[in-house]
Amino acid sequence: MVDILTGLYASSAILAALRHRDMVSGRGQFIDLALLDCGVAALSHYAQNFLVSGVPAPRRGNGGFGGIPSQAFRCADADIFVVASTPKQWSALAMALGRPELADEPRFATVSTRIANRDLVLQTLDSIFVQRSAAHWVAALEAADVPVSPVNTMDAVFTDPQVRHRGLRTTVAHQTAGAVDLIANPIRYGSGPATTYTAPPLLGEHTDEILTGVLGKTPNEIAELHASGTI
Q1: Distance (Å, rounded) from C-alpha 90 to C-alpha 85?
Q2: CA–CA distance from 90 to each of 97, 107, 210 (Å)?
């Protein structure tokens, strides 16, 4: 994740530097970007809360630190992720679970009381969700307009109807491997770039192209590099 986040920070940094060059200074600049720095920055409000209070947040796995529930729950056969932190969502969740009394339970009825009784809330929900399948609960909570999602396996990700609709799996022809599936770029434009995909290159496939187009080497110079074993 830190590798990916640093790449995203890098793209923003490059765009900002180009903007500064074009609008302010007329000059480019050196960008210093470290994996460590981006990892710390990505801690976001969790780290900021510590800097303000001096108190580190307890580890809660995939659970949030605001209103609850906002985390994964184990069902009879698989996990689901549920968010029901607002009063409306909590009331709808209680009805969908077949436990309407939970909506008015004094220890659960408001956001602040659920946070204060976090462990009891989660224990109660754990004991309910484990009784039925993930598919049952997803259907029930979706019908009640409670935010819910299955915790997908990788194959389920790419068979998800919305993932298929968005075309996030694309296939290209590779000269030695045949058809190769790739992850599509999530950035969509009304027109322009990122509309076609090429196969991953072979080792050295574009060496001559780069030597010619970037370094300005002549065909004879490139032939000499090949002959000498340099490339």
Answers
A1: 6
A2: 10, 13, 59
Q: Does domain 70-151 have CATH number 1.20.1560.10?
A: no
Q: Per-domain residue ranges for the chain?
A: 2-53, 70-151, 153-200, 201-231
DSSP annotation string for 81-119: EEE--SHHHHHHHHHHTT-GGGGT-TTTSSHHHHHHTHH
pTM of the model: 0.74
> Between helices 134-143 and 87-96, what is the axis angle to 10°?
130
Q: Give per-residue pLDDT as tens, 38-54.
A: 999 999 988 999 999 99
Question: Which residues are catalytically annotated?
Answer: 3
Show the tokens assigned to 118.
């976090």
